[in-house]
Design a protein that fits this description.
6 helices, single chain, alpha+beta
């Protein structure tokens, strides 16, 4: 997946997060955007976790890599570049190709926007790149052996869910685990369902409703990952 394609997917939600952060708490003071890790799979955003602390956000990397089978992990955080506010993106692909990308923040409120992404060069602190590289080195969980819960023990009945449904159940369990981990420090885990059916299955699998971003209505094309 090309870096330009990755940025096209992550910039819109990051812009929205940045705008929301400016009004968080109902004060006039500018609030920083929480460091956020975004998981991509099959050319779309699948899940994200935001926390107040970078180390807490990075601690979610391996869980996202293993649990949702992310093909790309992106950490987005506010930065200052040449005295101007910016967003720094650390991108890591499954084959361990890392990249730092920068965007300047322009405007405020509803007029806030991000400039064209530019190459950030070599990061001064490689901590984030190292953490993401380690995370993508872990093998994703299998989704072909997720046990059914609706079987009646009839001979010949399928023991496991179809892979596309197993994918959603594993995703849901991963996001639920992450939400439990970060909620006590004011963090939040989000899941972007591929379809209304996937959204329903994720909730039935125990994922908190507050973790569901939308209901999948905007995704009408089919996808074998079921998410």
């Amino acid at each position: 997946m090309l870096i330009a394609d990755v940025m096209a997917l992550v910039v819109p939600p990051v812009t929205d997060l940045l705008r929301r952060s400016r009004t968080r708490g109902g004060t006039d003071a500018v609030q920083p955007m929480f460091p956020t890790i975004i998981a991509l799979r099959n050319d779309r955003v699948v899940a994200a976790v935001s926390t107040p602390r970078m180390e807490a956000t990075l601690s979610c990397a391996s869980t996202l890599s293993v649990g949702v089978g992310a093909s790309v992990l992106v950490v987005a955080a506010e930065a200052v570049v040449n005295g101007s506010p910016a967003v720094a993106y650390t991108v890591m692909t499954r084959d361990r190709r890392g990249k730092l990308v920068l965007q300047k923040v322009e405007g405020e409120g509803e007029e806030l926007r991000l400039s064209r992404p530019v190459d950030g060069g070599e990061p001064g602190d490689p901590t984030i790149l190292r953490a993401l590289a380690e995370a993508v080195g872990h093998e994703p969980l299998s989704v072909s052996s997720v046990a059914r819960k609706d079987t009646g023990g009839t001979f010949g009945e399928e023991t496991f869910l179809p892979p596309e449904q197993g994918r959603v159940v594993v995703d849901a369990g991963t996001v639920r685990t992450l939400q439990q981990r970060v909620e006590q420090i004011g963090g939040r885990a989000l899941y972007v369902a591929r379809s209304p059916e996937a959204a329903r299955l994720a909730l039935e699998a125990g994922m908190p409703r507050r973790c569901l971003l939308g209901d999948g209505d905007s995704h009408t094309d089919s996808d074998t990952d079921g998410a």
